[in-house]
Design a protein that fits this description.
Length: 614
């Protein structure tokens, strides 16, 4: 083939390359060999070939090194993404390309588990290198994970991107893969035997499902036959219930209907023993002539469909039923024939006549003896012949007569089912609870009215000048019970009354009192010049509690107030005493507060107050 390249006969031949022919801006030029060599030596590949590169274990070590004319390699940084060949751009080292390692061989000493492999490599694993990993133990779970050099675990994926099957990695085999994000993607694949075994297991499971489906189909067929039988029975039962709407209904439907109607059809009349003050749910009181409007749609529809009388508004009205006995009615009945539904029939007495027995030619009864004869019920003369009032036969009592013919009876109130009102066990139970509660309230009210003691309050004076009990205007009788102790010896505790709820107390000598006590005779007093009722002996000790009970009568009446009390404790001689007393306040004032007071010193104690309302 002819040489059609660029030719120049003007260049002399030489055994040493001194120039290169080149192209520059469309023209052929001569390039000196030494200039071309300098230009090539300045490139990265020639720098590497001429050992113009340096090795650094980490990027941090590179960044800390002095900047020079070299190509650095970072080969052992803990962050595998930082390993590679760098170049200088501006004032920073920038990753340029991966290290020229095509393969990295890992070691697997079996430190991990069969399905959580821990492998080690001489250099960090990057996504640019293939990694060869020996398998120490057959995997026993799915998925399988692998960790290189203690770094985060990667999920091992097959070549097709699926999880490794159980038993897919067999002891002794070598796997080759690359790091791909958070996965380790195999170039080689898992053992086919594991996949085949898994497929066979799935096939067997599918056959089991097929057999189960066939068995279930047979059972379903049996259930269908059984259901059809129950359906037939349900239809028979529905027909036996005299359905007239042409439809069959479920048991749930009938249960719901029974719940909504309380088990009683619309239009049912019930007689209840009572005065009618309480109407049961779903009913209205039977009032003859009552107009049933659209406010009671169920009863109105029933009345229109069952022949009730209709007024001018087109509404049915309740038939007359006041003070009437009921009588069954059927169309075409033979007894009492000709009756129509709902008609009222007046009272009547079966037709009859009496037979009057007399002697032949004898005289009959008359208002005047012997004045007239009785001949076939006719009258003779000016007096009407008649039979007198009925009298007892001596056996069955006096005859009873009235304006109607009737049987013995008792009155009830009638109600008619007018609308649906659910009645279930819970409703009945709740109604019973409410009834019981109302009864309990009534009993409590009666008890309060009869017995009357009501808790007023608890009072606990502590080193107080007195113990005040206010707001007693509603009580005619008061009772105090408890204990008290005073701070001063040889001084009685006084009971005083107030008419202005404790602002001022009666302390004048308007209290009279008589004592009887089991201790020194001096304590048995009878005086009418006290400034309060002494509820203790005068020589009461201050180191012990005194127990007391006081009953006060006619507190809130404009009359003398009566006090009856008793007390027990220790006197200043450490001798037990027990005393009872009667006292009265003679002002005839309406009081509404009281207090226990020590004339000097303080009181400490604990007592309750009860009252009976006026």
């Amino acid at each position: 083939m002819a040489d059609s390249g660029v030719k120049s006969p003007n260049i002399p031949s030489s055994s040493i390359v001194e120039d290169f022919m080149g192209n520059r801006n469309g023209s052929t030029v001569r390039i000196p060999a030494d200039a071309a060599a300098l230009q090539l030596l300045a490139t990265g590949p020639f720098q590497m070939l001429t050992n113009a590169g340096k090795l650094f274990e980490t990027l941090a070590e590179l960044n800390a090194a002095a900047v020079g004319d070299f190509t650095p390699w970072v080969f052992a940084d803990p962050d595998g993404e930082k390993n590679g060949i760098y170049r200088r751009i501006g004032s920073a080292w920038v990753w340029a390309m991966p290290l020229p390692y095509s393969f990295i061989k890992a070691t697997n000493s079996g430190v991990g588990t069969p399905s959580a492999i821990q492998a080690d490599t001489g250099i960090p694993v990057s996504e640019a290198a293939l990694v060869i990993v020996p398998i120490a133990e057959t995997s026993d779970e799915s998925p399988v994970a692998i960790s290189f050099n203690g770094q985060a675990a990667l999920t091992v994926k097959s070549n097709s991107g699926n999880d490794i099957a159980e038993g897919g990695l067999i002891a002794g085999m070598l796997i080759v893969g690359v790091k791909d994000g958070e996965t380790f993607r195999l170039i080689t694949d898992q053992a086919n035997s594991a996949i085949v075994a898994q497929a066979e297991a799935f096939a067997q499971q599918a056959r089991g499902y097929r057999d189960d489906t066939a068995t279930a189909g047979e059972e379903i067929a049996e259930y269908i036959v059984e259901a059809q039988g129950w359906s037939t029975k349900a239809k028979e039962w529905a027909v036996s219930m005299n359905l007239i709407d042409g439809s069959y209904h479920s048991a749930a439907y009938w249960a719901n209907q029974s719940y909504l109607t309380g088990g009683v059809p619309i239009g049912t009349k019930v007689a209840m023993y009572g005065n009618g003050a309480t109407t049961p749910p779903g009913y209205i009181k039977w009032i003859p002539g009552f107009e049933v409007t659209s406010a009671l749609p169920d009863l109105r529809a029933y009345g229109l469909a069952n022949g009730w009388a209709v007024n001018g508004n087109g509404n049915p009205v309740l038939p007359a039923g006041d003070s009437l006995f009921e009588r069954m009615w059927l169309p075409g009945q033979t007894r009492d024939a000709g009756r129509a539904f709902g008609t009222v029939q007046a009272d009547a007495f079966q037709g009859h006549k009496f037979e009057l027995l007399t002697n032949a030619g004898g005289r009959g009864t008359s208002t005047v003896v012997g004045q007239v004869d009785v001949i076939d019920g006719s009258t003779t003369g000016s007096v009407t012949n008649r039979i007198g009032n009925p009298i007892t036969d001596g056996t069955n009592g006096a005859p009873r007569t009235a304006t109607e013919t009737r049987v013995a009876n008792v009155t009830f109130t009638w109600f008619i089912k007018a609308y649906s009102a659910p009645i279930d066990a819970a409703t009945v139970a709740a109604a019973q609870v409410l009834s019981d509660l109302a009864d309990a309230r009534a009993r409590v009210a009666a008890l309060e009215a009869s017995q009357g003691w009501k808790y007023v309050g608890r009072y606990q004076p502590s080193a107080a000048a007195y113990a005040l009990v206010p707001n007693l205007s509603a009580y005619k009788k008061i009772r105090l019970k408890g204990r008290v102790q005073k701070s001063v010896t040889n001084e009685a505790i006084l009971l005083q009354f107030s008419a202005d709820n404790g602002n001022a107390f009666v302390t004048t000598s308007t209290y009279g009192q008589a004592y009887y006590g089991q201790q020194a005779a001096a304590a048995m007093i009878n005086t009418s010049s006290l400034s309060g009722v002494a509820i203790s002996v005068t020589n009461l000790v201050n180191s012990n509690d005194m127990e007391f009970e006081i009953t006060i009568d006619r507190l809130n009446e404009a009359a003398q107030t009566h006090i009856l009390g008793k007390a027990g404790g220790y006197n200043t001689s450490s001798v037990l005493f027990a005393t009872s007393y009667y006292a009265r306040q003679t002002d005839s004032t309406i009081f509404n507060a009281l207090r226990l007071i020590a004339p000097t010193g303080t009181l400490t104690g604990d007592f309750i107050v009860e009252g009976i309302a006026a």
